[in-house]
Amino acid sequence: MTKYPFGVNITLLPSINPPDYEGYARAAVEEGVKVFETAGNNPGPLIKFFKSHGCIVIHKCTTIRHAKSAERLGVDCLSIDGFECAGHPGEEDIGGIVLLARAAQELKVPYIASGGFADGRGLASALALGACGVNMGTRFMCTVESPIHQNIKDKIIASTERDTVHIFRTLHNTARVFKNAISEQVVALERRPGGAKFEDVRDLVSGQRGRLVYVNGDPDYGIWTAGIVMGLIKDCPTCEDLLRAIEKEAEEVIGELQTFRVTAKAKL
């Protein structure tokens, strides 16, 4: 469908029906895909497979120790996911500012900042912290081209940074999702004396049920991921307009900081 290169993400996480990760990897390589993002548990075998076929590998992680482990496995780039992110922020609750600054201290390969980015000010801050760029998930959900129901886009715009919740905390597989009737029910089950087993929440958190949220437009029908960056999202532009606005704002912010530096030096 496109003459341009594109990447494939393979995330190794616990699932009700685990997919054939190795089969997906082989099929993608056979089709000529050259860029992969890996994430989740024990990506070593996949990274080795991709590198043996001359592919570029970006690994997403939430701690510096995992980033350094992936670096040793030969990844070309890292995506550093802060606690602000949608989806799985890891179990150590480290925010992006410290995590990205630590990455600048420790890593030898380039890295991208993930979690909490939606505008040019965020991009400028990520660059200042040593990242080469930013990943955006929730922000791109709320664009004209995003193939999800308009009701969900409107819900993102109407929501704030307070409208997410963590589920699976007691199962040690924490996920940040939109705060709705279903996710709050899951949290309530986890808070019972003795906690909850996965079987107790299995039907509530079904991926099939969550996908129907994006199709039918009912934000309370199932579990769906969203980051606290919702607090920064106020419109639903085209991807082109969004990226142009982010670039313009980042340049303005960086320019203001340069002016501030010159002024500060003059006063000294």
UniProtKB/TrEMBL annotation:
Task: Return the InterPro entries for the record.
Answer: Aldolase_TIM, NMO
> Which UniProt keywords are given for this protein, alphabetically ordered?
Flavoprotein, FMN, Oxidoreductase
Q: What is this protein called?
A: Nitronate monooxygenase domain-containing protein
Q: Which Gene3D superfamilies match?
A: Aldolase class I
Superkingdom to which the source organism belongs? Eukaryota
Which Pfam families does the record match to this protein?
Answer: NMO
State the Gene Ontology terms under molecular function. Answer: nitronate monooxygenase activity
